[in-house]
Amino acid sequence: MESRSRGPYNPAVFSGSGVMQDQMEIVFLGSGTSHGVPMIGCDCRVCRSDDPRDKRFRASVAIRLPPGPPTDGRVILIDISPEFRLAAVACRLERVDAVLFTHGHADHIMGLDDLRRYNNIIERTIPCYADAGTLEILKRCFGYAARGYDHPDRPSISLEPIDRPRDICGVPVLPVPMIHGRTPVLGFRIGRFAYCTDCSVIPESSMALLADLDLLVLDALRYTPHPAHFNLAQALEVVGRLRPGRTLLTHVAHEMGHAEASAKLPASVELAYDGLRATARF
Q1: Nearby residues of 90 by Cβ (< 8 Å), 6 or more positions away
Q2: Cα separation of 74 and 167, whole Å?
Q3: CA atoms of 228 and 222, how far apart (whole Å)
Q4: Looking at residue 138, which CATH number applies to its domain?
């Protein structure tokens, strides 16, 4: 069902092997906060940890859809972190067909230039889906990439709104509005999987969109409160309400060491780590 190879340099091929026709495979390309772990200039016990699960790239996942029609083994990214190239090489991510952006903060978009390699592999423009505010940020930062597939050394993207459910790569994708401090952001639901990073509030209307999940990936920054993120206690409150089959906590800062925090979690809740692979049904 999943590989337990540790650390960001996971040699497992991202091939979807063993994934059933009604399942998708989710690979954590990064599970860390905006600073990453270890953090620059920090000598804390987690930043000095020898546990490879404490080495965290910025948060992002790749979703491998099943082989065969209508999904044909396509890959959807959620966010593209600054370490994207390193994570893609480590996980042997051989294709990207679409990208979903949760919001426009640097730790979630600044690997976009490396999509150019995937343009060359699949020989077409890659659609990128986001809310209106994030699309404007992407236009400012990567306007050179939105000119069509005409140059092998420049990424080629199309910028697409996702303010309603859309069919992407053969599956329905549902945007889930959330709040990140004062910033509106999106989570995403695909089948019985949902990805909800960088949030401090999930409105009641959005909680209703997150019922009956096999797998919830949820923001849990640290033990102590933060104005723009769930801390661990707040994340567990959300889990208690939604009761998904499994929860993986992401966007984790250096306040929480993997082994220590994991020992305190309920049986169905785990800290994610870079290279972790999981499955969920459609």
Answers
A1: 8, 9, 10, 11, 274, 275
A2: 13
A3: 12
A4: 3.60.15.10
Range of the domain at 154: 23-281
Q: Is residue 6 part of a domain?
A: no
pLDDT the model gives residue 19: 52
Helix (H), strand (E) at residue 158: strand 157-161
pLDDT(250) > 80: yes
Report CA-CA distances (Å) from 146 to 80, 123, 125, 128, 138: 16, 15, 9, 10, 9
Based on the structure, what is the number of domains in the chain?
1
Q: Which H or E run includes 174?
A: strand 171-180
Q: Is residue 69 part of a domain?
A: yes
pLDDT digits (tens, 9 = 90+) for 126-173: 999 999 999 999 999 999 998 777 777 899 999 999 999 999 999 999
User: Is position 237 within any domain?
Assistant: yes
Instruction: Copy the structure tokens of residue 89.
Output: 């090489």
Distance CA 196, CA 189 (A): 9
pLDDT digits (tens, 9 = 90+) for 4-27: 333 332 333 334 445 567 899 999
Long-range contacts of 138-145 (CB under 8 A, 24+ apart): 138/101, 138/104, 138/109, 138/112, 141/109, 141/110, 141/112, 142/109, 142/112, 142/113, 145/112, 145/113, 145/115, 145/116
Q: What's the average model confidence in pLDDT over 227-241?
A: 98
- Whole-model pTM over 0.90: yes
Task: Compute the mean pLDDT over every residue in the chain, rounded to the nearest whole number.
Answer: 92
Strands, sheet with 75-78, edge to edge from the N-terminal-most edge strand = 157-161, 126-130, 98-100, 75-78, 60-64, 23-30, 277-281
